[in-house]
Amino acid sequence: MKNLLAYIHSLTNFSAESWEILSPALTTITFEKDQYLLEAGKVCDALFFVSGGYCRAFYDKDGQEINTDFFFENDIATNINSFAKAEKSEFSIQACEDVTVVRFDKKKLREAAEHDPEIDGLGRKCLQQIAAKQEKHAAMYKLMTAQERYEYLEKYAPEVLQRVSLTQIASYLGVARETLSRIRSRRL
């Protein structure tokens, strides 16, 4: 919870009283590698603050997994549309190694936010962070070549290249693994 509190303070001013009100909405959970934090077809009822390990978001398209995001320490993992609209998730979030998260229960979080403006503000800040990350990712695909996307990861998200398998990185970049190998060999 110490990492979560530091994360919260990096986003907004947050009092000890607000922390006490928020605490009942929080649960620390550990997922083993390959377990699902969220399965496609289910409604997302939580935000997951990753305090240790990492997980991925992916779609299953005709039996092929398409990775769309990775969440590392101090990231919030969720399906923002499913969370906000109570619709079934179109993608899954899966632990890629043992992952410890702090789970924000949606119902309890909303109740706490109704009684405390700092918690309401925190919720908006978290959603803004998630939306900004998604916007950067979308722009990356619209504006950059595969080579440029790889260079972007090198510069701004080296943890992806250090911790994620080549197959998953290739899927994330939208290229075949062989293409990724060629891109990497040109970089050496």
Automatic annotation (TrEMBL):
Gene3D superfamilies: Jelly Rolls. Coiled coil: none annotated. Residues 10-111 form the Cyclic nucleotide-binding domain. It comes from the Bacteria. SUPFAM superfamilies: cAMP-binding domain-like. CDD domains: CAP_ED. It holds the Pfam family cNMP_binding. This is CRP-like cAMP-binding protein. It comes from Chitinophaga niastensis.
